[in-house]
Write a structure and sequence with these properties.
CATH superfamily of the largest domain in chain A: Tetrapyrrole methylase, C-terminal domain
CATH architecture of the largest domain in chain A: 2-Layer Sandwich
Distance between the termini of chain A: 61 Å
CATH topology of the largest domain in chain A: Methyltransferase, Cobalt-precorrin-4 Transmethylase, Domain 2
Helix content of chain A: 25-40%
Number of strands of chain A: 13
Radius of gyration of chain A: 20 Å
Number of domains of chain A: 2
Structural class of chain A: alpha/beta
Strand order of the largest sheet of chain A: 3-2-4-1-5
Largest sheet of chain A: 5 strands, parallel
Strand content of chain A: 15-25%
Number of helices of chain A: 7
Shape of chain A: globular
Oligomer: homodimer
Largest interface: A-B, 74 and 75 residues
Order of helices and strands of chain A: EHEHEHEHEHEEHEHEEEEE
Chain lengths: 251, 251
């Protein structure tokens, strides 16, 4: 039997957000490759080989998966969220581009999933209801000045801004720099949301403003949303307010 | 039994992209509200009332859904893709904000789905592998100058740009204006993708460049992707090339 590779996402949290397409592949894959903590969420089949790794070297993980498929394995590369948004799909493409020519004949597909930004937005109401952007705040692979320039231009464009990977133990300072850049471009009343561990048992949503927000609140499991100038809250009879960005902008 | 409202997305195409959470709700809703052509994809249960409408007045559709729920119905508002991305969630929030105070006590939730941009990206490889933005090109609800300014700033930020609703029968000219703005900011060799009817039987992917692209190729079922300066293709042994945006940007 010839091998194949599927690059999939299992959503940000619970099984109810995993597409049937991905669940079906989990049942037939011979090998499952991914970051340990994503794999821990999945039910593994008897006979399946699980290749867990830490969150470090995505490129090495992608190369490993491609070589397994080239040897005839039925390989699933698993990301949290959607594989194409700051996850494994780009790493697999990089490995493919720089790898043996034979890899280009592999049966390789990427399959979509629910990314954290969409799950967080749903919990809140409709914060992405107008034009938006998504920025990976990690400078592991790109210079900080590019990130800061993108933040400034996104703020000037009045996009709703989703910030992935806002902070980690090795990068505690950058989210503070990001807030400083945003505060110089946007009003203090701009709605800001810290969405932590969305869909997980320890989910936590904090709705605040750019003026009041404490950037230290962000960690590696947080998605940050910075509202547009029009983004606002709707109080409810009970519970947290909804957050939404109206579709209509006045001329 | 008291009513509720769930605002859901059924993805851009096939059932294999509908989350189990949404499928489960389809089985228990008393009323299903949505654009006719999305509802046509779903299996309707005996006894369920389907409220189809044309694609025109989202606000009226949202108000209708809220009033049904207030009367005790178990209502599903169905969008294609994800409900929070240029779909029904924002319209429901607008209707809620301007509606009777009693609506704010309703059991109302938005649930995430797979938006067209993610499905198209998966088909291509990893075009959203670096920072990106999503812009609704329709000027039905916002001035064209805002859209054009956002296009220019997004191009300057070197975002990958996803354009939703690039053209319709009543708006054939704007996609040409959008390309004119993009061509003044980005190189002619920029990768451009027309992704039509992704996941449907008549799916069509056209990979071209900003210099070569014919904007007339876009219609209301097309998602347009404009690459970043680093977005590139990987030729395969057979079939269409992959398109991806490397994670790494040089200093």
């Amino acid at each position: 039997m010839s091998g194949w590779l599927r690059v999939v996402g299992v959503g940000p949290g619970p099984e109810r957000w995993i597409t049937p397409e991905v669940s079906a592949l989990l049942a037939v894959a011979s090998d499952v490759v991914g970051y340990q903590s994503y794999l821990a969420r999945l039910s593994v089949r008897v006979g399946q080989t699980v290749h867990g790794s830490d969150n470090g070297d995505e490129l090495a993980r992608a190369q490993h998966a491609l070589s397994l498929a080239a040897q005839g394995a039925r390989v699933l590369v698993v990301s949290g969220g959607d594989p194409g948004v700051f996850a494994m799909a780009a790493a697999v493409m990089e490995a493919l581009e720089s790898g043996p020519a034979a890899w280009r004949a592999l049966d390789l597909q990427v399959l979509p999933g629910v990314t954290a930004m969409l799950a967080a937005a749903a919990r809140l109401g409709a914060p992405l209801g107008n034009d938006f952007c998504a920025i990976n705040l990690s400078d592991n692979l790109k210079p900080w000045r590019v990130i800061e320039q993108r933040l400034r231009l996104a703020a000037q464009a009045d996009f709703v801004i989703a910030l992935y990977n806002p902070a980690s133990k090795s990068r505690p300072a950058q989210v503070h720099q990001a807030f400083a850049a945003l505060r110089s471009e946007r009003s203090a009343s701009t709605v800001v949301v810290f969405a932590k561990a969305i869909g997980r048992p320890d989910e936590e949503l904090l709705v605040t403003t750019l003026g009041e927000a404490d950037p230290s609140h962000a960690d590696m499991r947080t998605l940050l949303l910075i509202g547009a100038s029009t983004t606002r809250c709707i109080e409810r009879a009970e519970g947290a307010p909804f957050v939404y960005s109206p579709r209509r902008l006045e001329a």
